[in-house]
Amino acid sequence: MFKKILIANRGEIALRVIRTCKEMGIKTVAVYSTADAESLHVKFADEAVCIGPPPSTDSYLKMSNIIAAAEITNADAIHPGYGFLSENAKFSKLCEEHDIKFIGATGEMIDKMGDKASAKATMIAAGVPCIPGSEGILEDFEECEKLAKEAGYPVMLKATAGGGGKGMRAVWKAEDLRDAWDSARQEAKASFGNDAMYLEKLIEEPRHIEIQIVGDSFGKACHLSERDCSVQRRHQKLTEETPSPFMTDELREKMGNAAVKASEYIKYEGAGTVEFLVDKHRNFYFMEMNTRIQVEHPITEEVVNYDLIREQILVAAGVPISGKNYYPQMHSIECRINAEDPYNNFRPSPGKITTFHAPGGHGIRLDTHVYSGYMIPPNYDSMIAKLIVTAQTREEAINKMKRALDEFIIEGVKTTIPFHRQLMDHPDYVAGNYTTKFMEGFEMEA
Question: What stretch(es) of the chain map to CATH 3.40.50.20?
Answer without folding.
Answer: 4-103
